[in-house]
Write a structure and sequence with these properties.
alpha/beta; TIM Barrel; eight-stranded parallel beta barrel; 11 helices; 15% strand
């Protein structure tokens, strides 16, 4: 069952995986009338900092700030305060930082939202296991003996206990995570690739139709749209694919 709005375009978050702010602005200018949500990650933010958020919000984008904050609780709280002041609509912290860290992040966001009299504070998501990590990396390099599925579920349940608004997980874990979380918890899925695109460098990927059918609320899609010869046409193809899944 889908929990978020049934407007297909609102389920898409376009990933702006570039260091070039001018390029990112052009993408947002072209797409924001049909897709409202855009992700700023470490690459763009490290190159341009808060100015990237301000510039893209001014152009017309609602910003998902995906910096995966992970540090001691006090430091993460400070970072979240700064991000909340930028009036982003959603941001990430890394669930592996623990419940106390995530609670500190939530409290910081609430505090700034009250002081600034924002209509709503940013949605806070706990990142579970990166889509580039497979079982071999998880076990042999990171040293976590549990399966990827169990690890993702454990981190997701920690995020829920901490009062996060949702989690980030790959589509492969959706069938395990969705039944275990409260129905109001948002699930954001990166590594989404339409059937007509290539996989790229992510191990645990899924099509939009399948991810939505398993309970995803938002789909993060980057290169299939941003690297397309015609990004608007590519976006419209993805929207049609999502529309079909919502009506089937």
């Amino acid at each position: 069952m889908m929990k978020s709005k049934e407007n297909p375009a609102e389920k898409i978050i376009v990933a702006l995986d570039t260091q070039d702010l001018d390029k990112a602005k052009k993408i947002v200018k072209r797409l924001h009338r049909i897709i409202p949500h855009f992700k700023i990650g470490s690459e763009l933010y490290t190159a341009h900092g808060p100015e990237a958020v301000k510039a893209l919000r001014w152009v017309g984008g609602h910003i998902f700030l995906d910096l995966k904050f992970h540090d001691i609780p006090n430091t993460v709280a400070g970072a979240v305060r700064s991000a909340t002041a930028l009036n982003v609509f959603m941001m990430t912290v890394h669930a592996i930082g623990g419940v106390e860290m995530m609670e500190a992040a939530r409290q910081a966001a609430e505090e700034v939202a009250r002081k600034m009299k924002l209509k709503r504070r940013p949605k806070l998501l706990g990142v579970t296991v990166l889509t580039s990590i497979n079982q071999e990396v998880l076990t042999k390099e990171i040293g976590i003996e549990d399966s990827v599925d169990k690890t993702v579920l454990r981190f997701a349940e920690m995020a829920e206990r901490a009062g996060m608004d949702g989690v980030v997980c790959s589509g492969r874990e959706l069938s395990k995570v969705c039944p275990k979380l409260d129905k109001d918890m948002l699930i954001v899925v990166p590594g989404i690739r339409p059937a007509w695109s290539v996989a790229g460098d992510q191990e645990r990927i899924m099509t939009p139709k399948k991810a939505l059918g398993l309970g995803a609320d938002y789909l993060v899609i980057g290169r299939p749209i941003t690297a397309a010869r015609d990004p608007i046409e590519a976006a419209e193809r993805v929207i049609e694919e999502i529309k079909d899944s919502l009506t089937s």
